[in-house]
Amino acid sequence: MVAIKAPSEASVSHQLVARILDGDLSAEREMVERYQRGLGVMLFNRARDRELANDIAQDTWVLVLQKIRDNQLRDQSKLAAFIIQIAKNQLIMRMRSRAKQQFVTEDEVGEMRDPGLSPDKMMVNEQLGECVTSLMGELKVDRDRQILQRFYLVGDDKDALCEEFGLSHAHFDRVLYRARERFKSLWHENVGKR
Fold it and tell me: Whole-prediction pTM value?
């Protein structure tokens, strides 16, 4: 069995955006199908409210499509990052709006504060994200990078990835395991030294 080399995430992003700019409605559907799962997971993890996460996702897709159609995406190869950033901004605006509408006493402020979102922790999370992105770029096997990014970060479906890469479920699990091990090794070599 010959595995067909799948196009890179950057290439797929660029093609999708170009097709959307050309007015291809099927490209808009493909974009939503491709990134919906990862977007939903990210929003739910941040909002901890399924209904709010779904509302923000809908708002995000409307805004993303509008900005792409208006040619406001500067780097067409970074579509996933563009979508996530818009979603984060939408969630922040919604939370600020809710906060302005609520009147709370000083005692309630202490109860409402989320200790998990301190500026220090937010900065550490940002640095970890940058580190992971950098290390992903250092993976020598392109398939490792694509499978790790698309399965864990984008949220692509295992069945779709198996079909695209020409892998059985068992073979996909082995490839994913080896890719994780290679990434872990890079992590320990680079981050473990700090």
Answer: 0.52
Cα first-last separation, the chain? 43
Residue 192: predicted pLDDT: 62
Domain that holds residue 46: 1-113
* Domain end point (choices 113, 129, 145): 113
Give me the mean pLDDT over the 24-38 stretch: 91
Q: Which two tokens stand for residue 136?
A: 């992903």
Is residue 94 within 8 A of residue 56, CB to CB? The reply is yes
For residue 115, CA distances in Å to 52, 92, 110, 122 come to: 21, 17, 10, 11
pLDDT at 122 over 70: no
Same domain, 109 and 181: no
